[in-house]
Amino acid sequence: xxxxxxxxxxxxxxxxxxxxxxxxxxxxxxxxxxxxxxxxxxxxxxxxxxxxxxxxxxxxxxxxxxxxxxxxxxxxxxxxxxxxxxxxxxxxxxxxxxxxxxxxxxxxxxxxxxxxxxxxxxxxxxxxxxxxxxxxxxxxxxxxxxxxxxxxxxxxx
Length: 157
What we know:
Elements: E1 18-26, H1 27-33, E2 39-43, H2 58-61, H3 63-75, H4 85-91, E3 100-108, H5 109-119, H6 126-142, H7 144-147
Antiparallel strand pairs: 1-3, 2-3
């Protein structure tokens, strides 16, 4: 495994090891990561209940706009979110994409290798790079021998 050429798939027997995650991330990161096909995915409806995420460094681009949006998101009525499922579905249209979404996913280790090695590249958005590193950290804690050859491509955000 340590001699595996760059961009080469790990052996198929890594598909035998399954791992599950429950992750709350901003909607932009979710849309990038949910495109990975070889996994079972369950997505929660959009809601302000899990808070929001603003990209680091955004305040340096437009400090005034950053603080206005942050204040608006903090005042978003998470406590007043409806209990009725039909009303919740309709209210999804009110939720800005900076709010976090719940993503529950089952994948095998071969898919994890692919996802981490692809989504930790420095050119990638810091939001999904952060999630990819969190997935890797969790798997390394459970399967240290099998995950020792995962090669992240960029620095942690």
